[in-house]
Amino acid sequence: MKIAYLVNTYPRASHTFIRREIQALERIGFTVQRLAMRSDRANLTDPADKAEDLHTEHLLEAGPVTLVLDALGWMAQRPLCSLRAVAQAWAMGVRAGARRKHLVYLIEAAQVARRCAQSGVQHLHAHFGTNPATVALLAQMLGGPRWSFTVHGPEEFDSPRALSLREKCAKASFVVAVSSFGRSQLCRWADLPDWPRLKVVHCGIETHRFPLPEPAPTKLRLVAIGRFSEQKGFPLLLEAVAHAVRHHPGLHLTLVGDGELRGEIEALIERLTLRRHVTLAGWLAEAEVRAALAGARALVLPSFAEGLPMVVMEALAAGRPVIGTAIAGMPELVTPDCGWLVPAGDCMALATAISQLADTPPDRLAAMGAAGRARVFARHDVNIEAVKLANLIRGVHLA
């Protein structure tokens, strides 16, 4: 069966879970065409992401003139469908306060429908309930294949009305959430008759890449991984570290990632006199991330909003406990036997959890690592989760 994956920007350093999912589907016999609006190749460091970039068709690279002419040619052959799609795009644009942007999505959708038809694609799956799902919805209206999409959060749940989330849930063949919490948020906006088509398929890890871990380091080394954005809460983490180093002067934190708050984070490190205690590592390749986890006693994730972060799965698979916030899908994976959950936004609770980690004996840390590893292997094996998604896709076309 040939399917297409649709993502706005792909590949990206923070979207390796999509690549793993695609490759797992290919291992079980699917042919997957990668479609994206644009590339992030200038910021790619991982060789696997660079290779994936070469396998992805970036539609906007054709240029605006070619894109518009191809789309209008496709729509001219389907006048009634096109009129309905124009009305749909306009209505969704009015709701979002972005009419012009939704007309651009309409052009993109026509190009997606055209490419799917040319390539013999039978099903289109979009990642994220934002504009990729909008384009997929419009593409089907313009003669494209049946479609589905995966919702990660938190962005989709911040603006459900503007994103027409109810309408997308109604028109998609099925909708995937990456956690039970995510599905519950979809249920808030989907009509009750659509609830049975809201499914949970976890993002997955490649378990073979996580051999039995070495013991946790004796030094108090922490790692935090993610984009430097407001929702990740890294400035709060720095304040917690500033409190914790008073009692644990050997504490060191490595921040892996980058983003729009880098300047503010650098300034905060200076203001809190944490230069000796914090390293900014930038984005790292997958192998380097695993090495960073292996060299840490625990992962810290102080997020204010999340879906269910991949870095939590990777840390547990590496046999490292997690200190996180009790939000979204986090409590589904981080339980007391493998980590600590604290209230989001509570600096002192975060500092206390770091101190509790520092005081945890090595044998207890090893037991927590083993418990987390067993839990994530049972719930997030990418090959098992890909079969779930494959069965949903096949079910649509066998019905």
From TrEMBL:
Protein name, UniProt field: Glycosyltransferase
Originating organism: Gemmobacter denitrificans
E.C. number(s) listed in UniProt: 2.4.-.-
Domain Glycosyltransferase subfamily 4-like N-terminal: 98-209
InterPro entries: Glyco_trans_4-like_N, Glycosyltransferase_grp1
Keyword annotations of the record: Glycosyltransferase, Transferase
Gene3D superfamilies: Glycogen Phosphorylase B (3.40.50.2000)
MF-aspect GO terms: glycosyltransferase activity
Domain of life of the organism encoding this protein: Bacteria
